[in-house]
Structures are given as C-alpha cells and as structure tokens.
Specification:
The protein contains three helices and three strands; from the N terminus they run ααββαβ. The protein is an alpha+beta fold and about 120 residues long.
C-alpha cells in the first residue's frame, strides 16, 4: 500500500488560501471567504464550508475557477474537496431581518393648529 504525501502544514494551507482568495472576483471571494482551509494532501485541497448552500454553490459553480487558481498558486493541480462545518456559520454575515415599525396613527387630541400671526 502506498502512503499519500503528508498534508501541508496549516500555515502553508492558510497562505495558499489567502492567495486563492486574492485572485477571485469580489462576489466569488465574498462567498468563498466564508470557508476555512483545512489541508492540502496529495492532489486535494480540503476546505470546510459553513452550510449546504455555500458547499453546493462552490461544488456546482465555482470549483473549476477555484481549482484553476489553486493550481496556479500551488504550482500543481489540486482538486477541491468541500465538507461542512456548521461552527463556521457563526462567522457568516447575516442580513438582519427588517425591523417592522407599526404605522403611526395621529392622535386627534394632540392635533395642534398653528395660527398665523395677526395681520396675515
């Protein structure tokens, strides 16, 4: 049985990941930046996504671009593997629900009529 090459040290994975992010367009970078690089082992770059949506978006639409940039930065082909780590969800920016302010109904008792000064 052949052993797979040792995983790249964490600091190298982080540097590679930062480099990959810097080469992505802003909308792609915003989504991919919510992920955490885990390891580079053999021919794979392993990352964790915060949720199913992010993982699915990366696997279905963005993996080719990420693999292309990863290969250029690492100097070798790397296949992307994405797992889910729900603890990363805490770091994902959430859009707050819009606050609903009830309409203000004028109070007839508080109605103040401003009278013009004498002579106008």
């Amino acid at each position: 049985m052949t052993e797979s090459p040792p995983a790249t040290p964490d600091w190298s994975v982080a540097l590679l990941w930062d480099s990959i992010l810097s080469h992505l367009d802003p909308p792609t970078r915003a989504l991919v930046a919510t992920c955490k690089p885990l390891a580079v082992g053999g021919q794979y770059l392993h990352v964790a996504a915060p949720n199913d949506f992010t993982r699915d978006r990366i696997e279905q639409r963005l993996h080719e671009r990420i693999e292309e940039v990863a290969a250029a930065q690492a100097g070798r082909d790397l296949k992307l593997r994405v797992s889910i780590d729900p603890s990363l969800q805490e770091g994902v920016l959430r859009t707050p629900a819009p606050s609903v302010t009830p309409p203000v109904t004028p109070d007839p008792a508080a109605d103040v009529t401003v009278k013009p000064p004498n002579g106008l």
